[in-house]
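A quick word before the example. In earlier lectures we treated sequence and structure as two separate objects. From today on, think of them as two lines of the same record. Here is Acetylserotonin O-methyltransferase written that way.
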Amino acid sequence: FSYIKALFVASKLKMFDHLKDKGPLKAVDLANEVGTSVCGIERLLDACAALGLLEKTPEGYSNTDSANTYLTSDGEYSLHGYIIHSNDHLWPLFTHLESAVKEGSRQNHRAFGNKAEDLFKDYYHSQEVKQRFMAAMHSIAHLTARDVATAFDLSKFKSACDLGGCTGALAHELVQIYPNLKVTVFDLPEVIANISYFQPSGQHTAPVTFVPGDFFKDKLPEADLYILSRVLHDWPDEKIHVLLSKISAVCKPGSALLVAEIVLDEQKTHPPRAVLQSLSMTEGKQRSGSEYKQLLEKYGFTDVQIKITGNFLDAVLSFK
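And the structure line, produced from the sequence above:
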């Protein structure tokens, strides 16, 4: 826990950003930059150097290549958004793990003083929290997008709809890899209204269409390929029944559903990150490959194929 909190605080102070822009820096100079005590920042810097996140030389402290890539807010595969979300939302939940285990329920009421019926209402009650949550989802989506998009050959499909696709990180990767694929992102209106900050820059960016809506209640856009990335593990069985029934009903023969989740092994003990994530006690659950196969076949999807990518998300493709 001390390792993790050191990373969280360094990220919260944007320490890695300052070192990328101006490093190497002495502790006293960085303390002035970020507004901390000299002794406090020096101890944090030494801790991050001990963890292999920074390099320490007589000239001062500087980022490692990995820190520049993953820990700065503008790194190529920045996880900064997810780290801040983990500090501000997940860390408080896990401080109440004992109660979560005893009660078998989420601890939002203890951690934040509320108990929203909808998992995502907590994330959209203010612009700041919404921006933080979307940045977290964008971090993981951007990091995993290429491996998910290339796990299977999707070139046969002409149109795709990413349900709950948030900032469109996966959608933009898909249109880069499959130029003839028309991709729609379908997400809540409050999400769609906030996507401009996350859109890739450059004149050659292929277009992605964003459509506002609630995939539990509203009509789904037509597509040959539907995508659920990091969706199914969040929801209880009754909600999944509604969603998969809707997708199955609009799918034509030959259409497909691509699911991006962490796929557990059959003993449900690996990978550890998925098993530990389940301790947050959402109403949903992590599933093994055989459980995803059984679930999808229940709604008329066949030829279920599973690809373990080696990244944070695996891929499951099935056909109607």
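Notice the following. The first helix runs from residue 2 to 12. We will return to this example when we discuss secondary structure assignment.
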